[in-house]
Hints:
By secondary structure, the chain is an alpha+beta fold. About 40% of the residues lie in helices and about 25% in strands. The protein is built from three helices and three strands, in the order αβαβαβ. It has helices spanning about 1-5, 20-35, 50-55; strands spanning about 10-20, 45-50, 60-65. It has a three-stranded mixed sheet. α2 (about 20-35) links the parallel β1 (about 10-20) and β2.
Amino acid sequence: xxxxxxxxxxxxxIIFICPTEHIYKDITKQVKRLLDAELTEDNIHFSITxxxxxxxxxxxxxxxx
Length: 65
């Protein structure tokens, strides 16, 4: 996602829906690391949640640095 959208000028919103809390934590950490490395412009936004959280209406908070 980072490589693909890095060259795009259109604003994009990506939501990762993780099957477990463990994967949620890993994905959150990796996305933050990549955002800290400034591999994308401000045109790409990531949100992360779990399947269980989706069931309660939580579509994920946007990950920001």
